[in-house]
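Ticket #656: bound-state structure for magnesium ion.
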Amino acid sequence: MESRGYIEAFTPADGKAIAELRGVSKRFGDVLAASDLNLTITEGEFLSFLGPSGCGKTTALRMLAGFETPTEGDVLLDGEVVNALEAHHRPVNMVFQQYALFPHMTVAQNIGYGLRQRRPRLPKAQIAEKVDKTLDIVQLGGFEDRKIWEMSGGQQQRVALARAIINEPKLLLLDEPMAALDRKLRKEMQIELQDLQRQLGITFVLVTHDQEEALSMSDRICIMREGRIVQVGSPQELYDRPNSKYVADFVGTSNFFDGTVVEQPGPLTSVRLSNGMIMRGTPTEEMSNSEDVSVSVRPEQMTLQRQGEGLTVEVRNRIFLGEHTEYLVNHETLGDFLVLSPRQSEQTEGAFTVGDTAFVSWEDSAALILDRN
Amino acid sequence: MTARTRNWLLLAPAGAWFLVMLIIPLTVVFIFSFGERAPAGGVVPAFTFEQYANLPARWAAFKNTMTLAPIGTLSALLIAYPLAYYLAVKSSPKWKTILLVLVIVPFWTSILIRSYAWIFLLGGRGIPALLDWVGIEGVRLINTPFAVLIGIIYGYLPLMVFPIFVSLDKLDKRLLEASSDLGAKPWRTFLQITLPLSIPGIATGCMLVFILLMGEYLIPALLGGGKVFFVGNALVDLFLQSRNWAYGSAVAVTLVVVMLIAVTVYMRLITRLGASREDVSIM
Ligand SMILES: Nc1ncnc2c1ncn2[C@@H]1O[C@H](COP(=O)(O)OP(=O)(O)OP(=O)(O)O)[C@@H](O)[C@H]1O
Ligand SMILES: [Mg+2]
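RESOLUTION: The complex was predicted; output attached.
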């Protein structure tokens, strides 16, 4: 998190729970879209739901917004169960994936919509003033009288954002808000969104299937799979201590060697691979002998040398990435895997070329023994 | 072939149709309306305003048309909107198709036959007999403006339902969720989002029904029994029965003018309501 330039690092323990899912399940006919979700969302944090398509991210978000009622379990906002509380009574706002802006209203009318619904009514002048202020926050000053269809995709996204934040919600839900933007604009918006979140202090819950986006923006990430929450943690925790092969694969890149546990003498566990080879690594949970596991080694934790110990491999491909060089190497029985070599070691060892024979090694403790499912 | 000639070619069939079926007859009728009645029927060319001076004799037909057409349009709208809303928003996809078909089914038989059914229902042995039986006596329905109104609503309802259904059906449901998310209660969402976005459908439906109603003659003829007649009935009478073409033409020209004025006023109203001119697809 230091890399994000935080003055004070955020930890969930800092604040109070703003929202909570307690054993929440949601069934659509035969489809179990969400299954036993347990999650506490802390005031002021930036939390992301990350997972592949169809894993239930939107469903989770829609239950927080009040568009879906859980089949089982409780949704809490500010400590109160709100399962059946309709969306228009919840202090929660959502930025929709396709923005869902009102086509028959101007930009300013869209943004002021939430304030106009308040009862008792707010004075017109006060609404106009807040709309102006919010337009400035999202850098759309001067666009107030434009029609929605006169705005570009990126501008529409800002309008959608402004329309939500003007209400100062306790929770801002964003369902893949950047999916429709091109890469460059998406990067810009990611940074703006982070700035905005810090500036406003609103709790953000973002849905995405882009791991890079989740890693760069979130305080915490909630990884989902087939309707279940697999792991929740800071980007760093998930990267360094994934609790399963699924998470290690989803967060960053890793090499996996499948096998079964044979021995657990001390802090390290031994695993017999399918080719008979024994690998050692740090277990991530209680394990029993002969359990099916996967040994995970990140490419940057491997060293590639011309001579020495380790696996004998043949270099298959080389991609120069500036600070690092990525090698695709092949082992006779273990197959292909990736090694990331820092520039420094390139300079001492000299660059490998395709076809070279080399030796790959790593610290046993850097290898993680993960649940394979 | 230049784009220009291609455009002209595309327009040619419609243009020819328009000329032969609309412009020429209208011009003829316009010229006739200044003529005089020939002794054996038909028209003698002349230039006199005599026919127009005679218009008040047909005042009742104009009055009936100009009251029952707007009232019929409005009533059809009030009944069609909730129906279209239910079909588009509330019904499940499976029922939607079935119900839509049910709305069209009446079109499978001629309006003539269906109106005869109404003659029976509204006649002495129909609903009045039933009312008699429960103790409400002396109700006369057939050959009243009310009977004509019933016939109008019945006959034109599908024409009103469809455009409204289409505009409600293509309404993005996420807009309704967004409105609710921003704190609007359901009825405020309806007033601020659903209704304004269905104005194109309402406008099209009303225009369609109103224009057709202005020229209606079958329903008043059957359910009004010669007591409640429209301009259309007057025209049939003048052209086919009394063969007074000159006077008939003056009545027809007046009807066209009245219709043009009504439609212009209506367009003004709709544009002011926020729908753009292009939204009214029939124009
Ligand atoms: N209204 C619904 N009716 C029936 N099934 C639904 C409904 N909404 C979602 N589902 C199903 O629930 C599962 C989870 O859907 P959800 O939209 O939450 O996925 P997601 O993680 O948001 O996916 P994506 O990244 O593609 O948006 C899917 O299998 C989906 O088909
Ligand atoms: Mg989704």
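RESOLUTION NOTES: The beta strands of chain B are 36-37, 43-44.
TICKET STATUS: resolved
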